[in-house]
Amino acid sequence: MSENEEISKTVFLMNYVGGHLDYKPAIGYLVLKPDTIEYKTFEYSLNRIDLKVPIEKLKGLEIRTTEEITFGRWFLIGALSILFKAKKKYLILSYEDEADMLQHMFFDFNNQSKIEACIRLANQLKLERKQQLTK
Q1: What are the phi and psi torsion angles at 101 (to 5°)?
Q2: Are 85 and 66 contacting, i.e. CB atoms less than 8 angstroms apart?
Q3: In this predicted model, what pLDDT tens digit does every residue of 49-60 receive, in sequence order?
């Protein structure tokens, strides 16, 4: 199995908690593929999300605690911000949408230790994709 095939099967369970006005909190998983980062919800999730972000539109994938998240981002999340636990860590997916607007999506990854690997793989994929596009 090639490295890209292995990456395409890399799945990280996490809950979407807010940040994007078009989506409501949902239960699902993040999938890393060689050309996209996808978030899909489980069938039993009350809210549905089927998001595909082209890797070249990825602006950032980072972990932040509630204390590090700025007021502006809290404003984007709205009333759901009161559900965030103090000192809890969240994964923030930042990307440009189809209208070239910067979006920030917040995920509760339940402190999974492999989340650092997710970030490294996403950064590696972005770098490889950039190199492919400049050839």
Answers
A1: -95, 140
A2: yes
A3: 999 999 999 999
Distance, CA of 16 to CA of 26 (rounded, Å): 5
Residue 42 CB contacts under 8 Å (≥ 6 apart), including other chains: 27, 28, 29
- CATH topology for the 3-133 domain: PH-domain like (2.30.29)
Instruction: Please state the pTM of the whole predicted model.
Output: 0.77
> 57-75: buried (b, 16+ CB within 10 Å) or exposed (e) per residue?
bbeebebeeeeebeeebbe
The domain spans of the chain are 3-133
* Total Cβ atoms within 10 A of residue 46: 9
- DSSP structure class, residue 30: E
CA distances from 16 to 1, 4, 13, 106, 133 (A): 31, 26, 10, 6, 31
